[in-house]
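Checklist before submission:
- one chain only
- standard amino acids only
- sequence pasted in full

Submission:
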Amino acid sequence: MAVDLFQSYNRHMSTQAVNTVTETELTPDTLGYLFGEDAAEELAALAHRDVDAAQTVPLLAELRRRHPPEIAGALLTQARLRRRAQDKFPSAHRLFFTAEALEQATAHAIADMRAAWIDRFAPLGPVLDLGCGIGGDTLALARYRPVIAYETSPTRLRFAQANAAALGLADRIEFRLTDWTADLANGQLPNAAAAFADPARRVDGRRVFSLHQMQPPLALLRQLQAQIPALGVKVAPGVEDEEIPAECNVLFVSHERTCKEGVLWFGPLRGDALSRWALVHDGSVWHRLDASLTPPPVGSLSVGHILYEPDPALIRAGCFAELCERFDAHLFDSQIAYLVAERPVADDVVFPLAQRFQIEEILPNSLKALNRRLKTLGIGSVELKKRGSPIEPESLRPRLTLTPGGRDAVVIFTRRGDERLTVLARRVGMGGLVTG
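Returned file contents:
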């Protein structure tokens, strides 16, 4: 704990850095101060300071001259969390976080996208946010609709209320400190146009992957959907296909080149999408692709071909036929999610839907053969990739023969049928330029 470690410093003259103050350490009095005007001034000042771990002792000493130890620890923790939150929340400097909730929070771009989708396709009326946490999704929804937000943690609910006030959205949100499943069972769930749920995927300290094991489980959410047809449910991107109900469609969301989540859309929130679809964020704009699930063409793999690695959300959604059409490409194996084409297409067709490489050599699955070519070609550094191969690429890195100061290359371990292949390639960046 921040306070304990600072006291330990006083006793033992330790220079050890403190950890962040956790949710369970935040008392009502500490929270009352943290969300007040005096704390706002302190946090504004800390926003311009170096708050890295190396500065822990002097910063806490300075803060403790004005505040009790628990307040000093909470202020420093909040300043650090706001800095960490900048990539997720454009208004991070005005919001309040806990370390656990920030780790779980949805990035603003994703939350806003989902809120806009709900607003577009739901009937008129308020939206239920069933498990609002510190308010990431609640705040996004409130920009479009009135929101009724449920939360069972008093601490997180206070954070959500403070965040709503900080963004001027408090009058658009009704907060309820209760379990929405109890209201559903008792017939006391409020009338609403739509509902959004983010079930817990960590139960009793362990990660769960099944829709039937998350809390609340799919069966209870389907009971909810019988009352509120327009329902969105956030799920893990690795959700098992056979567990996805037939009456919904599933969206896979990519942000910062990572498939962050899946969303099950029920009733009116199915919108105009097909049964499986994907959204890819390029840093400012969302790019949508619906999967027809039509079998994609399969063809040859040759030196000189352009190889495309689709964004992981597009792979997860199964948008292969659509990508092949856009890139004038084909698969070289029906089970391998790489596309190849004889010639490149325009950058704005490719990015951000895929990364692009030019195949220089196709080698057998032999470390000796690979090292021979790396040495001959004067390769100084390699990017290692795999798909459909049992090889763990990074385990091979210490065994590769590289030339100091040589050019960059990409080594891709894959297969065609039962044949294991090593593909030597160069990354093709924006403007069609070969990089490295």
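Reviewer check: Confidence is low (pLDDT under 50) at residues 1-19.
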